[in-house]
Structure formats: structure tokens, C-alpha cells
Amino acid sequence: MPTKATVAELGYLGINTRDVNGWVKFITEVTGMSVSPEADDDGTRIIRMDERQCRLLIQPSDQEDIGYLGWHVADEASLDAIASQVEADGIEVELGTKEEIESRHVTGLIKFKDPSGLSTEIAYGPALSSKPFYPSRPTSGFKTGDLASATR
Question: Which CATH number goes with the domain that contains 30?
Fold first, then answer.
């Protein structure tokens, strides 16, 4: 029996909110993550916490809830294998739209609903930022990327 493809990591999280500015304040003043200087066309703000271009997406909505979870896989072949596995379980899988792929800063993605109805996305090829990550507030002991596993 062939080995099943698996996700490598939680890649990003989409949060629906009536108060984007409140989330931006919390993210910058409490967590120390950085917020994109400009909003997407729909008002979504992109949040960084490491070398990745996108880890959180805070998007305007009439609901306060998780909009979607985005899991990363190693490559396109893994994405295709996961899509086949999910479809084999009787769950409808859709390809991400060009706009979704661009807003999540990935190379490709699929999406489906999990058993509880949560929008779940599987993506590959997360974009790295060309700029180093700097926390939005003073912090100590926080390391990202290859430094995260370095000894102190």
C-alpha cells in the first residue's frame, strides 16, 4: 500500500472580523507580529511573524470567526496526492482561484470543507519575504527560520 501524503505544517490562518483595526492593534502591540503597510483591495491585512510573506490574514467580515486554515505541503506532487486522498474519502475538492493563491502568497492551493464545515486549504510554495522580519514591538528571545532551532 502506498504511503499517504501528509501536511508539513500549519501555513496560515484566515480570520474574519468586524474590527480589522482592533486586530491590527492587538497584533502589533501585544504579539509583536508585523502588519503589511497596505490593505488588499477588500481590506484584508497580511500579517508576518517570520521569514514567510504571510502567516495570518485579517479580513473584513460580518462574522467573528476563523475563515480558513491553510496547511502547507512540500510540493505540487504532495498537493495532488492530498487532493486525491480527500476526494477518495468523498469530500469535494476545489482548486484555489488565482486571487486566493495571490492573497495567501503561495504557488498553488486546493480547498475543501472539513467534517465540521471549516474551510480548509492545502498549499505549497509559500513565498518568503525579501525583507527580514522585525517585530512591531520590543521583544527578546524570539527567533525564526533556521535560528529557531539554534542552541542558545
Answer: 3.10.180.10
